[in-house]
Each structure stands twice: as C-alpha cells, then as structure tokens.
Amino acid sequence: AHIADRSFYQSVQRLLDQHDVVLYESVKPPGTGGAGGETDEERIASTRSALEFVTDLIELFHDRKQSYPEDLAALRAFALDQEPRMAGWLDAAILDAWGAKFTYARAEDGQSYTLVSLGADKVPGGDGAAADIKLADDAPRTPMDLSHNDGLQGQLADALHLKFQLEALDYSRATWRCSDMAVDQVDRELEARGLDFGPLGGTLAGSSFPAKVISVLLGLIRMADTFLEGAIADTFKVAMIEMLGDEAVVERGIGQLGKGFSEVIIEQRNQVAIDDLKQIIDREPQVKSVAILYGAAHMNDFETRLIDRLGYVPAETHWIPAIRVDFTKSAVSAAEVNRIRAMMRQMMKGR
User: Fold this and answer.
1) N or C: which terminal CB in the chain sees fewer CB atoms within 10 Å?
2) pLDDT value at position 339?
3) Cα(220)–Cα(302) distance, rounded to whole angstroms?
4) What whole-number distance in Å separates Cα of residue 33 and Cα of residue 47?
5) 3-state secondary structure of 150
6) How far apart are CA 309 and CA 207, in angstroms?
7) Is the Cα torsion angle 298, 301, 304, 310 positive or negative in sign?
8) How many Cα neighbours within 13 Å face the side chain of 278?
9) Residue 161's Cα: distance from chain center in Å?
10) Which of 54, 58, 65 has the alpha carbon at shortest distance from 96?
11) What separation in angstroms does the CA of 9 have from each of 4, 69, 194, 267, 284?
C-alpha cells in the first residue's frame, strides 16, 4: 500500500541510514531503464526512448530558464533540483544501447541544441545499427510534466491521516539508488504475456475514471471525518490492517490481475535489484552493507533469491508497526471494531 504512520517511516529512515547503499523500488519513467536489447531493432528503439526522455527534460529546462543547458552536467544539476530521483534516471537515460553517452551541443545563443546517439559504431554517420539516432525529424517534443498530481495512494494516506512513502522518506540521499524497471519495460513484458498494466497504472496514478470516483469518495470521507472525530479513518485503518495482515489476500489480489502478472511485477523487478546487488558486491568493495527497500509483496521472492541463489542466511528479525489505531483515543468503540474485523474476515474467507 506504501502508506503508514509517520512514526513508521521515521523508523524505516533511521534503519536505512545505517547502510552504505539503499536500492529502492520505484518504477521509472519510459526511457530510463537503461537502453539495450537482443536485436538491432530493440537497441535502436530503446535508444530512441531514452532520447525522448532526455529531450523532454531539456525542454523543461528551457521552459523554466528560457535557455537550453550548457551541457549534460548542467542538465543533471537541474534534474536533481526538480525531483530527488530524477538525476539517477537521467544517468541511465543518457547512455545509448551500445554504452556510449549521447552527444549534446548547445548553440551559442542558447536557443537551440543537438542531441544524438552515434549508433553502434560510435562515430558520426553510418548505416543500419551504425547510423546516428536523433529526434530532429520527429514531431517537436514538449517539456516534461512534473506537476504535482497526487495519485490514489497519496490521497488515501491523506484521508486516513497517514503518510505516503514517497513524501515521508528522503530519496535525495546520495547513497540511494533506484533499482527497478522502467514503465516501458514493464509494459513490453506484460504485453508479451497478453496483459495490460494501463488500467491498474491509471488507477494508482489517479488518472483513470475509477480513480477519479474513488478520489471523490476519499474527499467525502475527509469531510465527514471532521464531524465524526476521526471515526471513519479509524474504521478504514482497521479494515486495512485486517486485509494487509492476511498474506493470502495479497496473493489472491495479485493473482486476479492475470497469469504472468506476478512474474513481471514481482519476479522480474526483484531480479533488477538482485542484479544491482551483485554488481555492488563485485565492483564496489568499499560498500559493506546494502538495504533493499521494496514493498511487502516482494519479500517472499526476495527471501528465496537471497537464500537459495546467493547463499545468505537470516540474521535478524526486525518488525516495525506500520499502522496503529489507539482505541483509547478513538471514536470507534470496541464492539464496532469487533464487528468490522468479523465482517472483513468473513468477506476474505468467501473470496
């Protein structure tokens, strides 16, 4: 759910700050998953997707500053200032599928620029996979949209007097690294299995029609709760605790999204973090401890990979309460709580 009490995220932050590196979950924008592919066509397509991301960020720079960035370093500094996770995304996006950094040059007047991948041969010109790749012949790109549009999780957190993870944890730390797939990668993998992430993604982002309906309902809950001393929020919290505390409910929920959904959303994304962990072990001897920050639905698979495939053993159990309801201070009575719990358990038993 990625929502919890403020105290939970404060405890998580303190725990993560004890580690040299934090690999965190965050599905990245299209074009930021690292260009690559098995065929020339895939490498060219992924490079174009990365070019589109960088171009949209360059256009945002121009929209804000009325001039294009002097170089890619200036663009990175701008990205970091706009959104803590953005600099890391840009680092991945400025490399083409052959591992070379995009060539960027700004005109003297600062009002035009070129951005190009030199292709497989890494020199200007060429044909086929060796040909330069640029967006000059495409329709003009628009500035990247970084407007704050609360998704469903943020709205739910606000309605229940909780905190949303992206707002509660400090993602700007230099030791934090996004270790996840990009949206276009997820879409391609799901599409290959006959699945569509669009409806669920639109709901979480708050852009789909069901999400807009839920948003109105959450607004009514916030309004009503001011007159009922928080009783509705506490009722919802009890229901969430019952549901999220039942592992079978989470598994069934994922299963209902279609065969192969879990393979992509859980297993393939987990593998990205495991691959990043392996690289740190192999290439960064100065790093002595790594934390992986992912949602609870990912943990069973992570445990299998860490124990069975990498040879780790459990060393410590560390639990932090995520959502609390203090009934000594709540307008919800003990009898009402018991009825809610009984109702939730009956509903979950019948699914």
Assistant:
1) C
2) 81
3) 39
4) 10
5) coil
6) 39
7) negative
8) 11
9) 22
10) 54
11) 7, 36, 37, 25, 28
Whole-angstrom Cα distance, residue 154 to residue 183? 20
Report the C-alpha gap between 264 and 277 in whole angstroms.
19
Q: Partners of 101 in the beta sheet?
A: 95
Residues 6+ apart with CB under 8 A from 263: 193
CB-count burial class (<10 Å; 0-12, 13-18, 19+) for 115: buried
Q: What is the pLDDT of residues 92-117, one digit of tens each?
A: 999 999 999 999 999 999 999 999 99
Would you say 117 and 102 are in contact if contact means Cβ atoms under 8 Å apart? Answer: yes
Structure tokens at 175: 């030791």
Q: Which has the closest alpha carbon to 6: 226, 161, 230?
A: 161
Segment 297-319 shows an average pLDDT of 91
Q: Which residue has the tokens 């725990």?
A: 15
What's the confidence (pLDDT) of residue 232?
Answer: 78
Of 320 and 145, the structure prediction assigns the larger pLDDT to: 320
- Segment 51-87, tens digit of pLDDT: 999 999 999 999 999 999 999 999 999 998 888 788 8
pLDDT of residue 101: 96
Helix (H) or strand (E) segment spanning residue 2: none
Would strands 103-106 and 113-117 be described as parallel, antiparallel, or unpaired?
A: antiparallel
pLDDT exceeds cutoff 70 at 216: no
Q: CA gyration radius for the chain?
A: 23
Residue 235 to residue 102: CA distance in whole angstroms? 53
The number of angstroms, rounded, from the C-alpha of 239 to the middle of its chain's C-alpha atoms is 26
Q: What is the pLDDT of residues 245-290, one digit of tens each?
A: 777 777 777 777 777 888 999 999 999 999 999 999 999 999 999 9
